[in-house]
Amino acid sequence: MGRTTGSHSDITRPKIRAAALRLFARHGFAAVSMRALATEVGVQAGALYNYTPDKQTLLFTLLQDHMNDLLEACTSDAAPTALERLRHFVDFHIRFHADRPDEVFISYMELRNLTTENFATVETLRRQYEDRLEAILRDGAAAGDFAIADTKIATLAVIAMLTGVNTWFRAGGRLSLDEVITQYWDMVRKSVMAG
Amino acid sequence: MGRTTGSHSDITRPKIRAAALRLFARHGFAAVSMRALATEVGVQAGALYNYTPDKQTLLFTLLQDHMNDLLEACTSDAAPTALERLRHFVDFHIRFHADRPDEVFISYMELRNLTTENFATVETLRRQYEDRLEAILRDGAAAGDFAIADTKIATLAVIAMLTGVNTWFRAGGRLSLDEVITQYWDMVRKSVMAG
DNA sequence: GTCTATAAAAAGATAGAC
DNA sequence: GTCTATCTTTTTATAGAC
Questions:
Q1: CATH of domain B1-51
Q2: Is the CB of residue A31 less than 8 Å away from at least one CB of chain B?
Q3: The CATH number of A54-192 is which of 3.40.50.300, 3.40.430.10, 1.10.357.10, 1.25.40.10?
């Protein structure tokens, strides 16, 4: 008793999502026309408007969903020490982002193409994610395990370093992701540790 | 004696450069029309083509000039130890990039909008800059001062961390640039130092 | 849900007057 | 060197048939 034969919604919708991520990451949001997107999906341009009211909403949905996925996946580690929780965060951040290079790229590159209201929504979610790391660093500093001059700066510095992996890492390259994580964890750990 | 009265070349050219940097950084290369650029400059669209053969060449020139400025300003420090040269690099990198937020933003965001050939040219220059830091880290590791698993990864990790300052730092904010540099230097130093 | 066709606006780039 | 005017193409989005 399923859906009618003519309903391609649950096939076309994920295809649009995948194609948009790929093309926006490769060429940039403004450089990708709805025609080019439709061609990549395998439909005509007009059909896209069954799934999004306009191009802007399509971009916004991609970024919002990505941030929600990130926040949902970033479970608070139950480890007792801040050092262990930091290790967990580093491992999680690198793996999660390495799995979604297009989402991550778009999330950093195309914020400026969001409307003011949509930007504010995405920015709030991003801030929530940063707060997870900041809480770990604050706990470690309070316990005397970490030596950090300014917690907020340290948060941004660590996230920038970790997210930078995405600019060069490719699976099957010289180093495995495990090796990469090992070295980044070593650098992050040392950078915040007390003497 | 002087130039002819009708020649506005040395006035308009830098205005185009400044306007293009500002608009490309704010809205993205593909999202800025030649008409919008002309309006920002204060001329008509057709006049722009006295200064660039096309839009692509305009973008390429901005990025190429920026990388050449960077390489020229990044003088090799004569300090005897790798640690001192690293400190010099951190200070230089943060200051140089903080002074040119638009150039830096565009250099990371709009690489994908360059033609294959133009991209290769800019990429070669970027690689040369990375090599400056990598040489410092290699020297320090060879001397036993640094403990780094992979020099190339450490290079990219440090540059990503330092360039990340540009995503949030604003002059006149909570912290001075000197304070920011002090903390980043502390984190970078610790992250590469041997036990 | 997808198609064809089209409306209406905007794009990159050029020609020729001044 | 800049202007106005224009050519040609492409854009986002909609209407109506199937």
A1: 1.10.10.60
A2: yes
A3: 1.10.357.10
